[in-house]
Amino acid sequence: MIQSPVFWIVIDMSYRTNPEVLCKKIGRGYFLLSTRKVWGECPFVLEVNETAAFFWDMLKKGLSREEIIHISLERYNTSEIEASDDLNVFICQLIDYHYLEKAN
Q1: Residue 75 pLDDT grade (very low, low, confident, very high; cuts 50, 70, 90)
Q2: Is residue 82 part of a domain?
Q3: Domain that holds residue 79
Q4: Which residue, of 2, 28, 68, 85, is most buried by count of CB atoms within 10 Å of its CB?
Q5: Count of domains observed in the chain
Q6: Across the chain, which distance is largest between two alpha carbons, in Å?
Q7: 41-73 pLDDT, tens per residue?
Q8: Residue 80: how many CB atoms within 10 A of its CB?
Q9: Quick check: 34 and 18 in contact, CB under 8 A?
Q10: What pLDDT score was predicted for residue 91?
Q11: pTM of the predicted protein model
Q12: DSSP string of 16-40?
């Protein structure tokens, strides 16, 4: 699998979750919900799967990319490459939607 150059940017940068975005389980689904304060900057709601909700929780706790991948390997039956790729894609999506910000 050929990785996009944006993935290398994700690996090298530090990010933090937007404090105005919450992850909530509603019924059987998981949703990222932005507060009214940031409605103009990011989508009000984004449905995510269980793995993405787990990634969000780990990012919210301030864990590094490497720590999240390590914990993912223990939690899910997956390879390091697959966990890394899934996390990279999710981080890129979060950046695009302004749910994730560059950490100072």
Answers
A1: very high
A2: yes
A3: 16-99
A4: 68
A5: 1
A6: 39
A7: 888 999 999 999 999 999 999 898 899 999 999
A8: 11
A9: yes
A10: 92
A11: 0.83
A12: EE-TTEEEEEETTEEEEEE-GGGTT
